[in-house]
Inverse folding.
């Protein structure tokens, strides 16, 4: 894990070892993720990333509003803990895009977020989705697909 890089982040904070590992994985391999984090670093949004084994069936990631205090808006991204890193990285990017959509808005409570995503996206049951987040997810999936798989054993000559 690149603890130095993670320690330099203010706006994006992993809260458990699995979240720290996936954030490190995504930062190291995706220009899109680095760009999303840059957008958040320039905003007043703080995102805590956590892993969970208790997300609803069919949901790999979710972004929730937590609170607005002291001039900052706090969000929580929860990612399913039991997925391969590449899939979790694409879902992290998807959820970071939602955080950026919030950062670029004035939404600062649950109701204003519902209005924001009601205008920008579509609603399916309790959840909202945006075309931008789906597009970001596809871009990161493509980035990660082009990476060479690392060998299991590395030989030094």
């Amino acid at each position: 894990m690149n603890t130095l890089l993670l320690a330099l982040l203010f706006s994006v904070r992993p809260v458990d070892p699995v979240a720290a590992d996936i954030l490190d994985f995504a930062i190291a391999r995706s220009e899109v993720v680095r760009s999303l984090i840059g957008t958040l670093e320039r905003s007043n949004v703080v995102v805590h990333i956590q892993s969970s084994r208790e997300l609803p069936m069919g949901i790999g990631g979710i972004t929730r509003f937590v609170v607005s205090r002291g001039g900052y808006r706090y969000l929580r991204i929860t990612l399913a803990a039991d997925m391969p890193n590449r899939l979790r990285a694409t879902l992290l990017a998807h959820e970071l895009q939602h955080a950026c959509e919030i950062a670029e808005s004035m939404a600062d409570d649950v109701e204003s977020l519902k209005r924001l995503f009601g205008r920008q996206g579509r609603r399916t049951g309790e959840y909202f989705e945006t075309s931008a987040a789906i597009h970001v997810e596809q871009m990161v999936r493509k980035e990660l697909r082009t990476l060479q798989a690392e060998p299991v054993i590395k030989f030094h000559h």
